[in-house]
Amino acid sequence: MKNTDFKKEYNIYCDESCHLENDGISVMALAGVWSKKEKIKQIFQDLKMIKIKHDVNPNQELKWVKVSMNKINLYLDIIEYFKSNPFLNFRGLLIPDKGILKHQDHNQDHDTWYYKMYYTMLKILLKKEACFNVYLDMKNTKGGPKTRKLLEILNVNSNNSLENKIQKIQIVQSHEVQIMQITDLLIGAICYNYRGLNTSEAKLMIIKKIKRDFEGPLDRTSPLSEEKMNILVWRPNEWTSQL
Q1: 209-233 pLDDT, tens per residue?
Q2: How many CB atoms are located within 10 Å of the residue 201 CB?
Q3: Class of domain 12-233
């Protein structure tokens, strides 16, 4: 089957939080905001217009670590836009405690497990009858090996080859990709909430809005049927039906 055989094409904008093995933080999360490719250009423009509305340079990067009361209405409007846009969806994978992992028991290192978790996060989306472009946020200079390894893990762990479904996996700069900034905000909120932090009133306001808008907690596995805000809480040896 050729890529052209798929009538639908999606872009997935992925990010991660607290993913380093020895960063002193137990929780970890991987996530992707996804949409039909044909809607991406308009979404980018909409997000820029929201920034302009709040007197912010449309090319300025929005990040969870920058959230403050000074621009709280801007961040709340971004979450509102995500909620109201029917073409934007979120898939997140939350690992409550990466510190209890025993990689040696599974003949792997942390990096290999990390890519397996990326596969676990993406798998539910890749079951769709469509082709995909996967974009990863650049974290360091290892972008090339990162994309090759992820594609290898995706293919090895799939019952059916994904070669024709994944058109490309590409490293991008998050400050240049508007939708990636939504991924950063949502994954930041999930980790902050799970860690029980309360040092920022602005961040707590965003978390409260997300919980209210999507009528549920951010620390439980969502039903498979929930596409808008789908979260999988992963624990070793607790393989749910989502895996």
Answers
A1: 999 999 989 999 999 899 999 999 9
A2: 11
A3: alpha beta
